[in-house]
């Protein structure tokens, strides 16, 4: 064997005169005899270079590039001619599949002299998958399913062994995989695949233990499907399991909506309709099949190419997906059927992908804190952070996670659907024509706004023309937040959330309505008014959200958080400053309040692409301390204090630096009394 | 803790004055404080006493009996009054389920003074299952599925854990079962079972690892189903997995017969009809469902009570059962898809038993030696014997196994269906009216016979009356064997298998037919004649069988075998002496030639009842040396020599002692030539 150097820099020469080979970026180096294939040298040095075909020049995953020049620091002069000429195997590969200039197949190219070899990121086994947000931890590609190309010994009458046993022998000899099992459906197709491939096949091995698929010849692509099953929408990403890339994404409405808009109405449906759970299970599974078809079509593959799926969802979606009646989640003590991860066959949830595909469902945390929250935790990794991080996933319920690497607590808070525009007189779903941004002039109290589908503010001369097709039809969740925050900042709303009738003198947009006032946001067709009831609905929702977060802060004995992450589609659309003005979240440095987008879905994708992440989230979820807000005495107290804007007692020093908060004042009421009367009235309603 | 004695006899007294407790038949003994439950003491001493309910007086499996009297050898005086009085729990059990006089529940009865306690066989966990044949090794009950009764902690909102996790906690605390997985279909029914059982459930655990079923309250019975899938008949036994007893047996025709009578014609069907394999797979699976229904009905249970199934069958039946196209088994090199055991869900072969039931299919050995032979080996355990044992499973093909604890060889021999009465002019399947026994008077050459369905010989005056309903319709396999053997012993047949025309002078039953003679076995309606062609068919079959056995003897370098076992339904019906007269099997002490009945099916039953047997047969099968008769040059040579009766060259010393073998002679031919001419003619035919 060659005199193999270490990773440290060594400018000495090999005693035997063997050339020096240095791999970059790892810096691993060694002396190898002339004629050594680059891939073989890399294997010896533990350099991470991918290969599916096992060095046969078929898969093209082991590509490398020569770094030419004199590398003084490395003590080596690297020359392209120190690598063997382009071989016929490489030429065949290049002709058939294409090879970028300078790229070589490291299994074919052999060492002839000193060389520096660069391993591109896309040639690594454990590639890093690019994530959009820079602050996130990287995803290292290490899926549960891996492909292995093998050449299998032909059967011999004198030594009668099964085709499967000879395949296993090949996997052992060529890939060091031992003690494998094989799905019966893979056995059923095995003999034909071996003969069609002339004893060369590609094998998919699950978790290094289970043969799940066998294709004749070389199989290049397999796919994974990561799905977030929301109560309202189901979103799926199709990923290339060889590169980790998202190759198609799609979403559709959860058809369970016909059984009830929100979670509780779906559980009620089950309570009142025996067998209703099965109807909803069937509905969501059909939708998943549609979604799988859609992403496969978009990616130009078939659903049979999908070998692995991962799922997140709240506890009720989780149970219905798995065919578990969610009725126990509808009443105390809100017992989950299981809080562990579930790994089963896709066929067990009637998902028509590859017949041996597995699905992995992330673990639920508690009766109100589901696998979606587990996905958020996996994506945002608060358990790896020093910073005390508050994560809020805002949907119909808000799931709240707080903690750092020492401790994590989680709860669910019953915000109701007000943040999504429901229960609001002018509310509507986020769709073209919905107001999503609002500004109110501090002097004139005149509003301007933006609607979804148009980039212009409403005071722009072209606004009417550009919105002609859909009009101005309502206010969506983020629009409500901004409207209320701006009303508060411009003095229309008092800190107690009462529209100050005295402001009617300043603007005709403040109008009396019975014993309360309203603010006319848009005098069009339809008229869009923010009523006192609308404000109360948002106050109740935001107070629930804040109280939940506050309860978790109590549990950890802290008064402030270092970082706030807003997860969920809603979190992506709201302006965090306005969320803080309303007191939805505790005070925090605004630079550290970010939106994580669909972090639950990202968690599903991580579990799809990295098998270690599954153990990780299962371990973390067990350690999360679960708080049931409904039975915590202090929740009610926090809730009442959190009704005020931004809060009755908590100071908001960071917010005060960023925004000019109005002075506290009393509201004038239609009957001429001050705020106190209004507050008493509101308390009676509480 | 008490001063615990050892298993050795110790007449000394306990230092603390604790009573002495001796368990029989194990002899294990120890001193325990008064008030110790007998079951608890047994656990400490490692005495094998069963319990499903964990000492709650529910299951009644821990029954013991007091042995009263003075036991000088044991040094103890045992008195019924040294055991606590019948408790209310025992009374409740006795009232509800019955308790034999003298029986006590060892979990309830406590020690009050010196006692000798007898543990009946039916109270042991690892009971011995009774087998009909005394020489067989015992089956120790240790099925893959075990029942455990547990009490589960109720859910708590303050400590939200899944119902499954609390069930697992109970299994860990109450049964020391850890690291369990759970089938998703068991999770689906879990919450309801726990609540219906008021947090007391019985759990079925597979291999100590997998929760496969959960029943509310105490579940007493679960069943296993062992099936031999033959080409002609499918036979199944339903076993009580708590006792090991066969509670129902049933059989039916393999419906694949409509695609082809024998194996090769079924493979041909697949070759000529694409998709034909799926038709046959569907057919056999439907039959299995019918069979499961039939045995469940007979046992008074439902198919959902069947939690485990085991299967044996020849390679083609094995492949078709598992949905594997058997086409590769139809041509050289006869490659099996797999030669390993297969363990999958029953649902994967569309078997409608318990939704989480598993099936285990014993391993095949080679392309012509199947899981049925593995079953025979497991049942007959030649690998544990010092004696050189020849096992012959006679069907359409004959599977032959030879060896002892040092070495095992196996082969298949193409006997064809002649032994089953096919290819014989007067042949028929074993059914009422078929001749199964034949005797020929050595002087008069007059035959007498017995037919299936009547116990009388044909020369009995009542024979005609008793067979009136079905008549005398043909000759079945065992009848052919006896007819030929008797024809040989009475001089009608020469050792070369030629009907001696000279004997026509002695009896009108020997009649010329063209250039050969025939023997008129029965002059009725129809006439039953044994023709020269019939004799040739049997000669070819028996020569193939003998040649296969001889080939294996060559491999092991032996000239004689110590024991011969005839397996299969056919083996049960033939008289081994006549089989030896024809030279179907090598010479052997007739006392050591036995029939094992359906040993393949017994092997399936062993694998059902004892989990260790599965590892055992998988290990043994790997060690079996497989001989492919078709490519062994010596096979043809052995075959030709074996055409003679009993054999051209091999002496039959044991047989000669038991039977008066005729002197060799030449046959007179219709054209007046001697035997040589006949032989030459036959050789031309070969």
TrEMBL record, chains A, B:
Residues 660-686 are annotated as: Disordered. SUPFAM superfamilies: 2Fe-2S ferredoxin-like (SSF54292). Residues 19-123 form the 2Fe-2S ferredoxin-type domain. Pfam families: Fer2 (PF00111), RACo_C_ter (PF14574), RACo_linker (PF17650), Raco_middle (PF17651). GO terms for molecular function: iron-sulfur cluster binding. It comes from the Bacteria. Transmembrane segments: none annotated. This is Uncharacterized 2Fe-2S/4Fe-4S cluster protein (DUF4445 family).
């Amino acid at each position: 064997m060659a005199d193999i150097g270490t990773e440290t820099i060594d400018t000495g020469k090999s005693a035997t005169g063997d050339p020096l080979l240095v791999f970059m970026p790892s810096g691993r180096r060694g002396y190898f005899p002339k004629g050594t294939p680059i891939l073989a040298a890399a294997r010896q040095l533990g350099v991470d270079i991918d290969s599916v075909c096992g060095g046969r020049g078929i898969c093209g995953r082991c590509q490398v590039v020569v770094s030419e020049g004199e590398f003084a620091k490395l003590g080596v002069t690297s020359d392209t001619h120190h690598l063997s000429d382009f071989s016929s195997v490489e030429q065949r590969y290049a002709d058939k599949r294409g090879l970028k200039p300078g790229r070589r197949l490291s299994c074919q190219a052999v060492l002839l002299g000193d060389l520096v070899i660069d391993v591109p990121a896309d040639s690594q086994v454990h590639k890093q998958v690019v994530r959009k947000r820079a602050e996130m931890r990287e995803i290292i590609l290490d899926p549960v399913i891996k492909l292995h190309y093998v050449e299998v010994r032909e059967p011999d009458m004198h030594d009668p062994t099964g085709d499967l046993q000879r395949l296993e022998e090949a996997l052992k000899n060529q890939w060091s995989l031992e003690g494998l099992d094989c799905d019966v459906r893979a056995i059923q197709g095995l003999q034909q695949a071996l003969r069609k491939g002339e004893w060369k096949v590609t094998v998919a091995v699950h978790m290094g233990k289970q043969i799940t698929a066998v294709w004749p010849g070389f199989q290049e692509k397999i796919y994974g499907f990561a799905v977030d099953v929301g109560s309202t929408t189901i979103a799926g990403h199709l990923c290339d399991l060889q590169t980790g890339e998202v190759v198609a994404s799609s979403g559709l409405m959860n058809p369970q909506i016909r059984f009830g808009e929100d979670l509780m109405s779906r559980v009620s449906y089950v309570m009142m309709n025996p067998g209703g759970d099965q109807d909803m299970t069937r509905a969501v599974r059909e939708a998943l099949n549609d979604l799988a078809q859609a992403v496969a079509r978009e990616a130009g593959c078939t659903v049979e190419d999908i070998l692995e799926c991962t799922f997140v969802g709240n506890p009720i979606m989780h149970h219905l997906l798995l065919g578990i009646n969610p009725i126990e989640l509808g009443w105390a003590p809100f017992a989950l059927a299981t809080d562990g991860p579930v790994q089963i066959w896709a066929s067990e949830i009637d998902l028509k992908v590859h017949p041996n595909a597995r699905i992995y469902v992330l673990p639920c945390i508690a009766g109100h804190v589901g696998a979606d929250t587990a996905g958020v935790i996996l994506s945002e990794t608060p358990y790896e952070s020093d910073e005390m991080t508050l994560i809020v996933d805002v949907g119909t319920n808000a799931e709240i996670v707080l903690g750092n690497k020492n401790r994590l607590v989680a709860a669910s808070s019953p915000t109701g659907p007000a943040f999504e525009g429901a229960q609001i007189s002018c509310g509507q779903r986020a769709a073209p024509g919905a107001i999503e941004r609002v500004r109110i002039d501090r002097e004139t109290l005149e509003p301007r706004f933006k609607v979804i589908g148009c980039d212009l503010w409403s005071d722009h001369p072209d606004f009417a023309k550009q919105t002609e097709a859909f009009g101005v039809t309502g206010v969506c969740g983020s629009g409500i937040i901004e409207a209320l925050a701006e009303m508060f900042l411009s003095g229309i709303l008092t800190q107690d959330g009462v529209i100050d009738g005295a402001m009617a003198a300043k603007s005709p947009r403040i109008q009396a309505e019975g014993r309360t006032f309203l603010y006319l946001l848009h005098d069009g067709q339809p008229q869009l008014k923010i009523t006192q009831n609308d404000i109360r609905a948002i106050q109740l929702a935001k107070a629930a959200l804040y109280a939940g977060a506050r309860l978790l802060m109590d549990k950890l004995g802290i008064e402030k958080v270092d970082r706030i992450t807003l997860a969920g589609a809603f979190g992506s659309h709201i302006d965090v400053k306005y969320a803080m003005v309303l007191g939805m979240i505790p005070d925090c440095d605004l630079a550290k309040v970010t939106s994580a987008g669909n972090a639950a879905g990202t968690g599903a994708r991580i579990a799809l692409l990295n098998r270690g992440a599954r153990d990780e989230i299962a371990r973390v979820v067990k350690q999360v301390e679960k708080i049931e807000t409904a039975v915590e005495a202090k929740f009610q107290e926090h809730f009442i204090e959190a009704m005020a804007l931004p809060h009755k007692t908590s100071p908001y020093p960071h917010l005060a630096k960023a925004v000019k908060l109005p002075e506290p004042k009393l509201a004038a009421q239609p009957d001429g009394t001050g705020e106190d009367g209004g507050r008493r009235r509101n308390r009676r309603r509480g």
